[in-house]
Amino acid sequence: MKIKMSASRRLFVIFNYVFLTLLSLVFVLPMLSLVSTSLVSQAEIQERGNLFLFPRKIDYSAYKILLNKDSIVWNAYGITLFRVAVGTLIQMTVTCMLAYALSKKNLPFRGIITGFVLVPMFISGGLVPTYLLIKQLGLIDSLWVLVIPNAMSIYNMLLLRNFFMSIPITLEESAVLDGATPLRTLWSIILPLSLPSIMTIGMFYAVGHWNEWFDAAIYIKGISKNLMQYSPKYDIIYL
Amino acid sequence: MSGMARKKHLCFVKNIEKYRMFYLLALPGLLYLLIFHYGPMIGVLLAFKNFKPMQGFMGIFTGEWVGLTHFKQFFKSVYAGRVIVNTVWIFFLRLIWGFPAPIILALLLNEVQCAKYKKAVQSVSYFPHFVSYIVVLAIARQLFNADGGYVNVALKLSGHDSISFLSDSKYFRSILVGTGVWKGIGWSSIIYLAAIAGIDTQLYEAAEMDGAGYLQKVWHITLPGIAPVIAIQLVLRMGNIMNAGFDQILLFYSPAVYDVSDIIDTYVYRMGLGSMKYSFTTAVGLFKSVVGLIFVVGSNYIARAIGQEGIW
Amino acid sequence: MIMRKLTCMILTLVMALSLTSFVFADEVIDVYVYNNSGGVTGGVSSNAEVLKELQNWFVEKTNVRLNVIVPPAEEADTKLNLMLTSGDQIDAFWGDWIQYSSLDMIQPITDIYSAEKYPGIAKEFGFAMDQLTDSNGQLWGIPRMFDISPYPYLYRSDWAEAVGINEKPVTMEDLNNLLYAIKKADPAGNGQTIPLVTTSIDNILQCILGLYTDEGYSYWYDENNQKVKLYISQDGVKDAVAQIAQWYADGILYKDFNTLDTNALRELATIGRAFSSLQWYSGISMAWQNMYVADKTTDVQGEYSFLANEDGKTGSNKVAGNTRGLLFSSSASKESIEAVLKIVDFELTDTEARFNATYGLNAWEYVEGSTETAKPKGEGANTGTSLYNTEYRLSIGQLRISEFKELLTANDDRYVASNGEKAGYFFYYLYMDHHYDVDTYEPFQFNLIFDTNAISDEVIAYSDVNTKIAEDLYKFVSGSRSMDEWDSFIQELYDIGMAEVEAALTEQYNKQK
Q1: Which residues contact A153 (CB under 8 A, 6 or more apart)?
Q2: Which of A239, B181, B258, C233 could bridge A235 with an S-S bond, Cβ 3.0-4.6 Å?
Q3: Is A167 inside a domain boundary?
Q4: How far apart, in whole angstroms, are the C-alpha atoms of residue A70 and residue A92?
Q5: Between chains, do C258 and B166 touch, taking CB under 8 Å as contact?
Q6: CATH number at residue B252
């Protein structure tokens, strides 16, 4: 049965498409400008300034230097991939487990634990005590400093907890009746059911790792361990 | 112990037994928080001491106690009031413009029938999240500069004088908040789109059969469906009331617009002189955190009062 | 029996001798240096093998194993301060000696350094040592930059010649003639010419305030009430600010200067719009340098001039130089400090060491016919330098002509300093021509330490006053506040606590007199 669209609805749909297209332009244009700037020669940037939409003449010299086989960028990429893969894995594991536990309304001491989890979201000792702690734990200059001190984001955990809470209890109960442990239930029932939210939170974590540079800058002294963030920023803006 | 109380007590103990495995699941996360968040938290003591950098770790305990001196220092400043007002004001501007925007975007995207187009717009909307504020500033200058900025070119053509928007107190905050919204709208809409995707489609079908129009569906099904997510986002955001976007403001602002955009963080930063004023910055940070915590508790209370889940 | 005793004695003797030889044998000393000297690209690491070879070469030659920590591209100071605070071993780093000594984070090297022991350092930096010496005669480090009076007026002489002005502008009158002539002629076309550009009002004041006041952009001593005061309360500041306001109103000064940072400023130059700057010297000059490097046939020609009054009073203040230098942390041992100084001296006295530290081991060759100048081997992006980030270059300081020679041919007459030497970096000779002579003029702040850290700790008004000055200067310049209100502006500063600031400064001054 074909539903006839009312005139106002048709208008809305048109408006929606137009609006979203314009919005997309607003999002795309700056990105286009960035890409164009990276694809021209230094001389052209000097002539035209740093912001233009289309290159006059494409020049790959910036990328040649960046992706040169001797370039440190490869090592940096390796480190970034490490932290994105391993870091996200650690984060998802820790977060899912805690989120699941806290999603149980009848968990004894739930309120206190939630409070315990919330306070660090707002109160922090600051950079110096954190650095001293990292140092005490011997993590300075270790690759693990990129994935352990940020093993869980309280914010993401709370989001996941709420997602878990919206899953009907009946599905879990049948698993429990069959004698499944909470871990088993989590793995076999809850996770598959909340795949969209898992993916979303996972993506938040992964992108967070990709974008992060401050911890590497501060905690890593040795050479060859700097992350991706520097190189592109340096090359695209200054080359 | 009376019979009733005894029963409760046993029930309680049995509960802990029952939930034993859950505590195990929770352990890694709680341990992590204990070590990496509560551990350094002892550093807030620095706010009450005169910390000398060479004292190192022990300085947290053995440093000279000065009580509320640093806090008083901050409030003695002639600009203390102004920076607090600016912080809160910019926070609220960002909230009013930046909080509903991703929700509206998610709703609009949800109405799009063509799946490919929807995916395309969604992906494109993430781009600004990955663009650093340095580039955003360059774009803002290109648009708003008195000399040759596109907006001013248009103004001149229509007979007005050019305005140096980025240096003008009347317009600066609008540009600040506007670019901030542009940068965050796509990324923030992810969570709402995920929530919308989680609404039971049967509800829509049922409403359809009851003769509900599109607007009614949104009002009665979609919004209530994502209300919990909206509530939790809002409550958590209130905790940031003392954060007005330091990174962006530091880049964009200038003495010309200190009066409207100098926030607590930028003011302290200028005082910083090499950022070794650890005690002072810890004190200000503590003040901000406590205020934020109060607001979170307050808004959580309000959320529960109107029937939403809240954080706890 | 006697034989046994003898053998015993001989064995003991041999053992004792071998032990002492152990003690006297040269041990390799490990030193740790945080290279935030500015000569190293942040966040970029040298190739590990290349670095190891170079490190071993240094160990061979000096018995010092250099471990250099490359600062990140951003937050370099944050990282340094965190490392120092947490007790990480850093023997040497670059920084402001006044700030670090007031926090007890560095130690003086008065007893360790001497001109005899380190002739290379003495020759290169000796004359500037007073910049890092306090009023008690303690030497706190090796200077990094010298007082090159880094606030000249920089302009495009090719455009100036095109409007018929062939001499450097010296007085304010000359300057105004030039600026207004350029504006009228509009060399960039379409009204795109920007006669004057800067990133902040403070920069302009640094360049011209000395023409209007006694001390320029510096603290000054008011004889009338025996107080040390901030620059803003001098007579004559009002006139300087009025001049800047005039430039703003007449379209001489770039109206959006507030939104510029150094890169944006350089961009305005490279796209051919900016004519001149009143700014820290390496702003616009690097832009012109880059334009020249990109196109050797370009017409762009940069020129500098130090503004002065008819009576010889110069515009840029001559505060007691730069206080940034190579500093030694208070936890460094005497051996480590000596080791670092040894490396610095080695690089300055031995040309091979200098070029190895600059370009890398075996990555350079002498320029034809010279034993003093070198250039990197190879062409393009794969030159010797691309694997090595110059982090072992501890002797960095004065810019050397020879370093930049490879940018120009040997016969390029474009940039010639007054002593006839051809300068690769055209503004290098700003130093050579303009090093101030203490005998003729001693700035008020010379050899005085003003610990602004301590002041801002105790006197909150310090930041308040600075904030208000920054805000209101912009208002005066942009015209939203009339210059007639200058005196009430000064009064307002006193209302928010400038007197306390003055009292604190005066107190520090009196202690050192």
Answers
A1: A91, A95, A204, A205, A208
A2: A239
A3: yes
A4: 35
A5: yes
A6: 1.10.3720.10
Contact at CB, B270 and C258, closer than 8 angstroms: no
Interface test with C, best of B78, B144, B281 (most C CBs within 10 A): B78
- Residue A117 and residue A36 share a domain: no
What is the structure's pLDDT at C277?
Answer: 93
- The answer to whether residue A94 sits within a structural domain is yes
Which phi and psi angles does C222 have, rounded to 5°? Answer: -90, 110
Token pair listed for C56: 């071993």
CB contact under 8 A, A97 and B108: no
The answer to whether the Cβ–Cβ distance between A100 and B186 falls below 8 Å is: no
Alpha helices in B99-168 (DSSP H): 100-110, 115-130, 133-144, 150-157
| Total domain count, chain B | 1
C137 in reach of chain A (CB within 8 A): no
d(C-alpha C109, C-alpha C92), whole Å: 12
Bridge partners of C154? Answer: C277, C304
Q: Is residue B295 part of a domain?
A: yes
A53 and A77 fall within a common domain = no
* B165 within some domain: yes
Domain enclosing residue A36, as ranges: 7-59
Which of C291, C313, C309, C312 lies closest to C300, judged by CA? C291
Same domain for A36 and A98? no
Q: Which two tokens stand for residue B241?
A: 């009331």
Check B40 against A130: CB less than 8 A apart. yes
Query: What are the tens digits of pLDDT across the range B86-138?
Result: 999 999 999 999 999 999 999 999 888 888 999 999 999 998 998 888 888 88
Structure tokens at C51: 């670095």
Tokens 């700037």 -> residue: A37
Number of Cβ atoms within 10 Å of the Cβ of A87 = 23
Sheet architecture: strand order including C302-305: C194-197, C274-278, C153-156, C302-305
Asked, for residue B68, whether it belongs to a domain, the answer is no
Asked whether residue A64 is domain-assigned, the answer is no
Q: Which residue of A has its CA nearest to C73?
A: A230
Rounded Cα distance, A92 and A198, in Å: 8
Looking at this protein, which amino acid is placed at residue A81? L
Note whether A211 contacts C: Cβ–Cβ < 8 A: no
Structural domain span for residue B108: 73-305
Domains of chain A: total: 2
Task: Please state, in angstroms and rounded to a whole number, the distance separating the CA atoms of residues C278 and C151.
Answer: 7
Q: Are residues A102 and A140 in the same domain?
A: yes
Q: Any chain B CB within 8 A of the CB of A205? A: no
Q: Is residue B159 part of a domain?
A: yes
For C179-220, how does the pLDDT look when each residue is reduced to its tens digit (9 = 90+)? 999 999 999 888 889 999 999 999 999 888 888 888 888 888
Could you tell me if A19 and A128 lie in one domain? Answer: no
Q: Which two tokens stand for residue B141?
A: 């200058």
Q: Does A26 touch chain B (CB under 8 A)?
A: yes
Task: Give the global pTM.
Answer: 0.85
Check A128 against C42: CB less than 8 A apart: no
- Sort out which chain A residues have CB atoms less than 8 A from C260's CB and list them: none
Residue B57, amino acid: F
- Do A50 and A12 share a structural domain? yes
Residue appearing with tokens 């806090």? B71
Decide if A184 is inside a domain. yes
Q: Clarify whether residues A84 and A132 are in a common domain.
A: yes
CA distances from C240 to C213, C476, C483 (A): 9, 11, 11
